[in-house]
Amino acid sequence: MASLARLINTLPVPIFGSVRTAAAFVIPKAKTLPRFAGWGLPLGVGALWFIWPAVDDGWKIEMGLKADPEAAKKAAEEAAAAAPKKVELSPAAVAKVEDAYKSGEHVETEDDKMLAKASATGDYTYFEEKWEAFTEKATRPGEDDDDDDDDDDDDDDDDEDDEDEDDDDE
Prior knowledge:
The chain is mostly helical. It has 9 helices and 2 strands; from the N terminus they run αββαααααααα. It has helices spanning 2-9, 19-31, 40-51, 57-63, 69-82, 91-99, 110-121, 125-138, 145-169; strands at residues 12-13, 17-18. The termini are far apart.
């Protein structure tokens, strides 16, 4: 066994001369590798960045790292053959589909005419009267929430003042 170890130690190794010299150099260096473990991933990514473009596309397809363009082309042809036929519509049906979203003709009303006239002249008094009438119809006279809340608060304050005066009289 000792002679086998001596034989291995004397084998020639480029740069170092023998396996013993190479081992004496490499073993202490290998003990420092854990300090550089964090650089393993970035160095690997950097190496692949340069190496990946040189890798043959056939190998990438074979390993499943890249899609096979011939298989994709064949699948597209099969899908096109299995696809249902296009539906042909009669010209009357096409015309009905094209006109389905269109509304009837617009008939200009008296208000439209007045609006056009008011826009041209800048005089909106006719519409202001209509707006005032609408506002009057939309609101109930005498109903104003803010004033009611203020009145309620004032009444509460008055009640408290009255109670304080009654306590002082006794």
